[in-house]
């Protein structure tokens, strides 16, 4: 994986932990026998993944946007449900990087570069890459590659484990934790999956996307596009995906032949694909020059496309204006996205944010309340309602809205964060710290979660509440010890 930040972090981790460089290149898959299973069991693999993601969520390239996250999670769940095996609860997330790339982490985590989503010309193309990565997960290619009998692989996993142990101990060494994420995200580059493994992931991915209702031709289209990008960008780093997942004539021919033998599938792209794709164009623009280029591309689409694609282009331009603090312009552009009665949870969420920035608090509450009725399954709209109520001074109503959302999405960490903030406004410090402890537990920051629970206990005078907190503290400390014991095996 060619990610400048990750490469710098990888060097930092290696110097800090081992003072050497790691670059493993296995030529085949290791045995699936007892030795391999003992070294990296599914339980330990998940522990590694969770610990890595604790650091990853704090990485500046991690995209923490509810619309993006919910769409990718939904796409991942749709594909996982159709896998010809067991891929339970994959977590799909986005990285802010215009390169076309994707990677699988231990434990069922898949990272997609924003450039992969923005380059996909239809939803089936995007699904083909994600299905391929799920194929690697289903076959445990990452876990098996990391634990094969190769000294450099043992060094690699020891490096990751050492950095994660430091983070688990609450050392506060953010650089080391971020380096662990960087190195882990580069695992597939370091492992250099064999042609056998890549072809296996292709075939499983093709089966998966077809069973999930996507057009299998999307994989052929994406292969062709990736091949062209790699050829045009040879030596410039532009063919990132093909450098980590080498395309060969054999792989491309195999998939083309298999697709020709499959019945045609007519897939209708979801509206969310186009709106999220437009948003990611702006989220990955980290300079004024890139922002202007993204806006120019969206204006061209707005002038040439029809229907949802045209609406998504205007939506992207409205989002760009919001980011540049041109709130009146953002509102005008969003009206163009809504032309012809077009609506979506993404449009509603943006309308709420624009109203809040214009300090039209009651209008924001009205839009949010209507939005929750119209889009009850949208996390972004639900968060917009809580934020609108909070800004309108209706803090108790915001708490009730968040509690309702938590019942619907109990694993969404950001809801607990907002709940904690609102409890603080209501001068309920014990409830605030308990909510924040839940937030930190959800993102894997166990030492910080324990710290907040201890603070809550010290602030409480209620025996029943103190007893509950004691149980939570013991449970989290035991989870820390268990994770530490598992990671210590690889030091």
Describe the structure in brief.
The protein has 491 residues and is mainly alpha-helical. It is built from 26 helices and 3 strands.
Give structural notes.
By secondary structure, the protein is mostly helical. 70% of the residues lie in helices and 3% in strands. A three-stranded mixed sheet has the order 1-3-2. Mean pLDDT is 82; it is low at 1-38, 172-176 and 232-238.
Intertermini distance: 25 Å
Helix/strand order, N-terminal first = HHHHEEEHHHHHHHHHHHHHHHHHHHHHH
| Beta-strand proportion | under 5%
Query: What is the average of the pLDDT values?
Result: 82
Number of helical segments with 4 or more residues: 26
User: Runs with pLDDT <50, length 5+?
Assistant: 1-38, 172-176, 232-238
Q: Main beta sheet, described? A: 3 strands, mixed
| Global morphology | flat
Number of strands: 3
Amount of helix: 55-70%
Question: How big is the Rg?
Answer: 23 Å
Briefly note the structural class of the backbone.
mainly alpha
Spatial sequence of strands, sheet with the most strands: 1-3-2
How is this fold's topology laid out?
Blueprint: H1 4-17, H2 34-39, H3 42-56, H4 66-80, E1 91-95, E2 102-105, E3 109-113, H5 114-119, H6 123-138, H7 141-146, H8 151-168, H9 174-185, H10 187-191, H11 195-211, H12 217-232, H13 240-244, H14 249-260, H15 271-283, H16 288-304, H17 307-323, H18 327-337, H19 345-357, H20 361-374, H21 379-391, H22 395-408, H23 413-425, H24 429-442, H25 446-459, H26 463-488
Parallel strand pairs: 1-3
Antiparallel strand pairs: 2-3
Helix pairs in contact: 1-9, 3-8, 3-9, 4-6, 6-11, 6-12, 8-9, 8-26, 11-14, 12-14, 15-17, 16-17, 17-18, 17-19, 18-19, 19-20, 19-21, 20-21, 21-22, 22-23, 23-24, 24-25, 25-26
